[in-house]
Every structure is written in structure tokens, then in C-alpha cells.
Amino acid sequence: RRGRRRGRLIALLFVFPALLLLGALVVYPVLFSVGRSFFDASGTRFVGGDNYAEMFRDPATLKAIRNTTIWVVVAPALLTGLGLILAVLVEKVRWATAFKLLLFMPMAVSFLAAGIIFRLAYDEDPDKGVLNAAVVSVHDAFKGTSTYPTARGRTGLLTQDRDGAYRTTASPGDPVTLPMVGVLPKDLPRDARPAAPAATRTSAPGELRGVVYLDFTPGGGGEQGKVDPEESGLPGMKVEAVRDGKTAASTTTAADGSFRFTGLDKGPYTVRLPESNFAPPYQGVSWLGPTLVTPAIIGAYLWIWTGFAMVLIGAGLSTLPRDALEAARMDGANEWQIFRRITVPLLAPVLTVVFVTLVINVMKVFDLVYIIAPGPVQEDATVLATQMWLVSFGGGNDQGLGSALGVLLLLLVIPAMVFNVRRFRNSQR
């Protein structure tokens, strides 16, 4: 007995520092937060369950609960699925170790650094955000972009339609000049040529000639509405000849801004510069707008944690009995049938542990949401952890309500933790 007591006493002495740290860093904060949640913002007046009632009346808190639910439903499922697929595919790759290393490397990056990286990647400016740069490049490759988004017609000489197009009226044989302003000389296309020679060309019968030019003389001077020698044509501008609401002909201006329609009937036409000439450039997708901010942050989270899920599932995959897989192949099963009917069922315990672990993790996500979401959409992206911090320290200064949010988060995490602990105990048995 003395030996057993002495052994227990020695074990207690060894465990005591860890218990002391656990009590100071975990138990005491939890108990303090529970007690603090029953007091008002100042911490002096007992309010009972008012903080918990207020928590479910506050629209920001309800939005945080909704976003947390989205995180819990989407992120762990996607990560577990991606991890499973990658773990199975990596087995068939020659450089499997290098591939695993590349996928696991984001785990070495702190959430702060990852948040900054993705904040830049999601930037709406295509010159800064790599995702929008790719989206804009693909869009412009298929739809093109306007050459003169800042151009506008000279007031009093051209009429602007509601859709942004400019027009004037002319008949075949009449010279047409379409003066434009608002384009900086440095923004002119490299192939732009002086417009003066084009303005002197005459039209043949049934032909309508004209010129679209920048009505601006560098250094000053010149006459408004008249093509001066130093004024440049605007190449690549689309021009239409319209009669009775229908486009009779269309063309594109040459390097000197000139254009020509042939085979026109007698009578007046509306010479029109369509609005597509002046459309603002496509700026891509608002990744961090109110609609896409939560999926965008989940995407950053996937980038970090996919390697973790793949490695854990890969470890479970390496322990599967190979004889069962070989027997299935000998019986004529294809790879998809083996994956669906043998691999996944045998990996179910590992998949469950990975999924539950990720559920616990996403409930506590804070860094990515706080760093990636811009200030104006912070409320649209908020989750329980960020809402708890904002209410307590980020301007709300209501630590009573913040403590209630902390207790709610604890209550949501505990079932998943208990489930994981039971799974570990059962696996040890």
C-alpha cells in the first residue's frame, strides 16, 4: 500500500504543473466567462439571462450564427471529400511524396499570412488581384473590351442617346465629322494617325464617308468641330448607318479615324457610334462583396486545410487490407466500384474523425474572416468567433454579451469534442 500511495503521490507531483496550467488557461477562463455572461456590459449589475435573450434578437448575431452554420455544413464536407479524392489519386502518382509536400505546405503558413495573401488575391483591381486578372483576361478574350471608355462626343455637335451612344444625321455624298473629347493623347492606340487627310476625301454617289477624331490639338489652339492638322483619328471605333431603326451598314474606323459606307440609298441616315465603343472595362468579380465574401473565405480555408485532410486520410488508406482490394479486382470490379463499395466503407472511421475534427475547427475560425473581409462587409462575413470579439473588444465593449456568445460557442463545440473522444476510446479498445 505504501508503495502504491508513494507512486500515486509521485505521479500527482508530475501531473500537477500540467493541471495547474490547464486550470489557469482553460478551466478558470471558462468558468469566468459563464459567470460574466450573467452581468451587464459594466460587469456590476446582474441581468440573468438577458444577454442570452439579446443574443438571439441581435441581427448581427443571427447573421453570425447563419454564417457559422454555412461554414460547418460546407467546409468540412468539401475538405473531407477533397482529402479523400486526393489521397486515393496520390497513390497512383510516381512523385507522391513531393505532391503531398506541396499540398501540405499551406499548413506551415499562419492564418494571418494566409489571410493577407488571399486578401490580395481577391482584390477587385485586376492590376492587383490575381483572380480578377485571370477572370478579366478570359472575359476580354471572348467578348473584347472598349478602346475608348472615357471618350464622349463634343457637346453641341453630336447628340447622345439614353444608352450612351452618339449620333448625327447625314446623307450619301455628305462629309461626316464626328468630334470626340475625353481621351488623353497618351491613351491613343499606337497605330493612330492624323485625321486631317481623311477629312478631305470626297464621297462617290451612294457612298458616305466620314472621320471620327479627337477634337483636341496638343499645346492648345485649333477650332472646335473642325479637323485640325495635328488632331488624331480614333482607330477601331465602330460606326453604324441607321435608317428607320434598322442598321443599314456598319464598319470600323481605320488608323486615321476614317470610315466609309457604300451602296446606300438616297436620303438621310443616322450615323451612330454605338455605346459599346464607350463601355467601361470589365473589372471582374467582386469576390469580397456581400454575396461572395463567405464562399471566398471558405476557399482560402480549403487551400490551407486540404493537405491536412489528405495526409490523415492517406494514413488510413495505407492501412487498408490490400487483399480485399485485389479480390474485388479479380472479381471484375472497376476502380469506381472498388472506391465506392470497398475503400469508402473501410475508411468510414477515419473520414468521421477528420470530418468531426474539421467541424470543431471551423466553429472557431477567426483569423481568416477578420483579415480577409473588408470593413464594409465585415458584418456580412462575421461568424460567432469574430462576433464575440467585435462585441467584447472591437467597439461594442459589452463583455457580458460577448461572454454569452463565448458560452454559446462552447456549447456548440462540446458535442463534437465528446463524439471525437468516444471515437478515440473505441479505437483504442
Strand content: 5-15%
Strand order of the largest sheet: 2-3-9-6-7
| Tally of discrete structural domains | 3
- At the fourth level of CATH, the homologous superfamily of the largest domain is MetI-like
Order of helices and strands: HHHHHHEEEEHEEEEEHHHHHHH
The amount of helix comes to 40-55%
**How would you sum up the major sheet?**
5 strands, antiparallel
**End-to-end CA span:** 29 Å
CATH class of the largest domain: Mainly Alpha
Task: Describe the model.
By secondary structure, the protein is of the alpha+beta class. The protein has three domains: 1-36, no CATH class; 39-128 and 287-428, Orthogonal Bundle (MetI-like fold), CATH 1.10.3720.10; 152-278, no CATH class. Helix content is 52%, strand content 10%. It is built from 14 helices and nine strands. The chain has helices at 2-36, 50-55, 59-90, 96-104, 111-121, 130-143, 196-199, 293-318, 322-330, 335-363, 367-372, 378-381, 384-392, 399-428, and strands at 152-153, 159-160, 166-170, 176-181, 208-214, 238-243, 246-252, 258-261, 269-273. It has a five-stranded antiparallel sheet with strand order 2-3-9-6-7, with no helix packed on it. Strands 1-4-5-8 form a four-stranded mixed sheet, with no helix packed on it. Strand 2 (159-160) and strand 3 (166-170) form a beta hairpin. Helix 3 (59-90) runs parallel beside helix 8 and helix 10 runs antiparallel to helix 14 (399-428). The radius of gyration is 34 Å and the shape is elongated. It starts with a helix and ends with a helix. The relative contact order is 0.14. The model has no long low-confidence stretch (mean pLDDT 87).
